[in-house]
Here is the input.
Amino acid sequence: MFWKKKIKDPRKRELTYLEKAVFEYLISQLPERQSLLVKEQLKYLTLIKRVEYKNDIVTELYPDQFGIIPKEILFSRTEEFRLAYVKYKIGEVKYTSEIHMAMGQVFDIKIRPKPDKKEIVAVEFLEIKIDSELDLNIY
Here is the structure.
């Protein structure tokens, strides 16, 4: 039997510089109402769990307690969906990120390929695709 590396429980951490940069770019590109919602939600999502795979890294975001996020700052679309797909470059390497939502709140950010642990100097954003149905459940 093959044993996999144990994934640790979420704990209080900070987003990395790259994750913060992607969220800031996303917030600047969203419609005004949704950008305010995401900005407010990120204040409540203080527990972080990073899951590293061979080619990518997924950072899951959780509140301290379930139900602590006020209903006023949740999206009305409550199903799980991809909020945005972002392409960018760091130096000569091209990266992509996906930001997913679940239950009306930001759930995770996936970065592919897995970035180096060295310091990131500048992120050059190339393209963003935002889901057009932000307030309507489609399933």
Summary: The radius of gyration is 15 Å. The chain has a mean pLDDT of 91. The helical segments are 17-29, 32-44.
